[in-house]
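Archive record
______________

***
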Amino acid sequence: MNKALCLAVLIIIAGIAIANVPLVALDAPAQVQAGIKFGVSVQVNHLNPNEEHYIDWIRVYAGNEVVAEKTYSSPQANAVFAEAFEVTLTKDANLTAEAHCTVHGVGRSETRFVAVQEVNETECHLSLCDCKCYPAGHTPEELEGRLCGINCLGIYGISGCKVVDGICTEVYEQNCVNDADCVPARCCHPTSCVPKQQAPNCSNVACTMECMEGTLDCGSGSCACVNGRCGVVWNAPATGTPTPVATPTPNRTQGGAGTFTPTPVPTPTITRPAGSDNTITYAIIVLLVIALGVAAYFYVIKKEKPPESYRSENIPE
């Protein structure tokens, strides 16, 4: 009888533990464009969170690669909650989500296949708001109806767009052939280089004799033609060799009419009622486990009970 009772209790405890593994649901668009961010929503159902029993991380996978993640250091306020992520893909992928419980381990969602639509060069547009290339219909001008006029070629040397690995990518115009085509970008304490036709007029400029760190002063570096663009070759320590470093690019996101802040990507939501299906699932699992435990108990009792003939023949008079 003791064996039967122990077996039943163990089955019930194991079943309840399994029932409290996080239930995870992932929602994402069926089709997206290569290189464009899109929204992914992950819903988690996890019973009775407390200081020692809670979800400490959620991860979104594209195949086996983690493409989005969030960690937690304290319990969630509600048993059912959702998180929104932004993901970028360059090829078709199977998305899944995992949530980890500090006590019961990992719960995993079903797989969601997302098809990635590649673009060709005729579908790539150069935005004059931030000098970046986008698939047609996704530039700031097209999304927000803005009018911008940054001189992308003159300021950044960007002449157009091309497709690289299915993603719209900026094309930089070559501005040099050899090192002699490049000169310091300013008269005093230069940090970058430009084509000699853009050389500053230093005829009436007097500079200090200070050797400023991070500049070309005092032989710290020199101008060079690096991959068809004027850049800097910084003089490495005596033990090393000079390493080509591209000319620093001005920050396109600061100041002026060209400032552009990407519009947040709308995040899809899970349409099914939060927690309704999961609550029913928990109840069914617990009931089945209890029934299994009771059945195991009576089965063991029956196996251990001696037959009537044995009992009558062996009872001493």
